[in-house]
Specification:
Elements lengths: L2 H12 L5 E4 L5 E8 L4 E6 L2 E6 L3 E4 L1
Antiparallel strand pairs: 1-2, 1-5, 2-3, 3-4
C-alpha cells in the first residue's frame, strides 16, 4: 500500500468510517479498529481477535 493511500485510510477511520482490509499473505479479512501513523500499521479485528498488520501487507476491500 502506498503512503498516500495509507494516509487516506487513516483519515477515513479517524472520521468514523468503517474500513475492511485483506492481508495479502494470510488472506485473512478484518475490520480496522485503529491505526498507527508513526509506525504505519493497522490494528484489525479478525473474527473477534486483534491483529496488527503492516500497511505493506494489506489491501483495502471495497
Amino acid at each position: 500500500m502506498r503512503h498516500d493511500e495509507f494516509e487516506g485510510i487513516c483519515n477515513s477511520v479517524s472520521s468514523g468510517e468503517e474500513k475492511r482490509l485483506k492481508h495479502i499473505v494470510t488472506h485473512q479479512v478484518g475490520k480496522i479498529v485503529s491505526v498507527n501513523r508513526e509506525d504505519e500499521f493497522f490494528e484489525v479485528d479478525v473474527d473477534g481477535r486483534r491483529k496488527t498488520w503492516s500497511k505493506d501487507n494489506v489491501k483495502v476491500l471495497q
